[in-house]
Amino acid sequence: MPLRQRQKIQELLRPSGVSLEVKPAALRRLCFFVAAVFAAVALPARAQELPDLRPALIGQGPDAIINRIDTKTLMAAGQKDALIMFWMDVKSDGALRWSGTFRGTPDSKLLEQEVQRALTNAKMVPAVRNHQPVEVICYGTVEFRAIEGKPRLRVFANQQTEELKTENDFIDPQPCIGGDSHFTGFHYPDTGSPVPVSGTVVVQLSIDATGNVQSAKVESESPPLLGFGDAAMDDISGAKFIPAFRNGKPVACQVTLPFFYQPKS
């Protein structure tokens, strides 16, 4: 420790009218002890500042998806009313590990391309479980409309048809990666196919307000009989979720979510 810094600490420790000499070795031990005490107190306090549960959120910053979509370019290119869905792996710091788009309405190609561009380097407000940031898979929908020559853009954090129709404040449940969740991602099954095949599984899920899976079953799988449905059931076995949120509060829900399986290149 520099001499000036030692002298400053000694002055702080010295009562008025009392001479106090602290040897460097003792001073180092004292500083280490004080730092350890502050760390022990501060870390739990910071953890407690986070809620028990919070889904990954779109946010409002300059890197938020909604602020990265260029509506003027879409209007100039002639984009009509369209909708595109997306999913993404949101890391515990809000950055995206990967993302993808799917289920576009007719004539949504321009919107899909713009959403894919916007997702590159986008950031989310990270999810929280047990007062700790956690990595999650989350789902969303982008809706673009041209109203009286002006663009109207909405980004929803769900893919449930009825919720989208009424534009409800509803967020789909999000499977957690790590922490107390045994979900580790989507694992491509041994299909037995001589050629690589992509698979899609739609799963019906019932999840309580604390993020526990109450029931899960395969609604559909494509292509069938290649093990994608079984892979989906295996992948979510033991998974913990950030529960669905409605109007800012966790709620029990019954939803359908798609899982996508891509062969390794």
Question: How many structural domains are formed by the residues?
Answer: 2
Oligomer: single chain
CATH topology type of the largest domain:
TolA/TonB C-terminal domain
Question: How many helices does DSSP assign?
Answer: 7
What is Rg? 25 Å
Strand segment count? 14
Give structural notes:
By secondary structure, the protein is an alpha+beta fold. The chain has 2 domains: 3-49; 53-261, TolA/TonB C-terminal domain. Helices cover 28% and strands 32% of the residues. It contains 7 helices and 14 strands. The chain has helices at 3-13, 24-49, 65-68, 71-76, 109-119, 161-166, 228-236, and strands spanning 53-54, 82-90, 96-102, 127-129, 132-147, 150-156, 170-171, 174-177, 199-207, 213-222, 241-242, 244-246, 249-251, 253-261. The strands form 3 sheets. Strands 1, 2, 3, 4, 5, 6, 8 and 11 form an 8-stranded antiparallel sheet that branches. The protein has a 3-stranded antiparallel sheet with strand order 7-12-13, with no helix packed on it. Strands 10-9-14 form a 3-stranded antiparallel sheet, covered by helices on one side. The protein is globular, with a radius of gyration of 25 Å. The protein starts with a helix and ends with a strand.
